[in-house]
Amino acid sequence: MSLTLATVTPGEPEIFASLQGEGRSAGLPCTFVRLSRCNLACTWCDTAYTWRFEGGADLLGRPHRDAIAFERKANQVVLSEEDVAERIMALGGNRLVITGGEPMLQGAALARMAGLLEGHTIEIETNGTVDPHHALGLLVAQYNVSPKLSHSGNIADIALIPERLSGWATEPKAYFKFVVAAPEDLAEVLDLIAIYAIPKQRVQLMPEGTRSADLRAREAWLAPLCQEHGLGMSDRLHIHLYGDTRGT
């Protein structure tokens, strides 16, 4: 059994130690595993190398603002579940963040891999469109759910699935993080909170951007909106520290 991972360099899986840059656990030391493949295609995605591959179907209807296509062989690597677990354990941390791509596409393999770990608090980052594999329930401490708004370029029929959002809203381990690019995006967030009864104390808004200056400019108008509506705000700490780079 195996997992398909993203790479930091050709053949080298993106498994690394850093500080969590976003969401409820921002600032905590973590081990990260970045998986490859995604079922959505955000036009501003900062990890397009996990899904936007050269050739045919991977580009059809999946536009990106940078218009870059990636060579699959250099940006994807397949490892056994045991190998991934050993690499995680070798880094010596106690908090693991599984990100992507969309990790839930590999839910069964993830559950088997997670079962091999010892002493780790596990977070999974997801776009919220795929149900978690039933075997993950006892293994995962936190789901970081980031539903994609209309400015992402994804159509609502595939990005905002009612039964999935309802399920996440009632999952006490789920914390929501909405990426916003303009003040007008707040209306869409508030509608989703109201429709699916998402508890506001489990919601954070995060500015879109891959440059520190852009994040700071958006946070200037985002902070008062969060305060006004009783929502949390998430920075992107890793961008300020390391820039838009892999393995950070």
Task: Please describe what this structure looks like.
The protein is α/β, with parallel strands linked by helices. It has one domain (2-179): TIM Barrel, CATH 3.20.20.70. It is built from eight helices and eleven strands. The chain has an eight-stranded mixed sheet with strand order 3-4-6-7-8-9-10-11, covered by helices on one side. A three-stranded antiparallel sheet has the order 2-1-5. A hairpin with a 2-residue loop joins strand 1 (2-9) and strand 2 (12-13). Helix 2 (81-90) packs across helix 3 (107-114). The longest helix is centred in the C-terminal third of the chain and has 18 residues, at 212-229. The two termini are 27 Å apart. 40% of the residues are buried.
Helical run tally:
8
- Main sheet record: 8 strands, mixed
> Strand-and-helix sequence, N→C?
EEEEHEHEHEEHHEHEHEH
Strand order of the largest sheet: 3-4-6-7-8-9-10-11
Instruction: Determine the structural class based on helices, strands and strand pairing.
Output: alpha/beta
- Work out the number of β strands: 11
CATH architecture: Alpha-Beta Barrel
What name is given to the CATH topology? TIM Barrel
User: What is the averaged pLDDT score?
Assistant: 97
The Rg value, from CA coordinates, equals 17 Å
Q: In the CATH hierarchy, what is the superfamily?
A: Aldolase class I
User: What would you call the quaternary organization?
Assistant: single chain
Question: What count of domains describes the coordinates?
Answer: 1
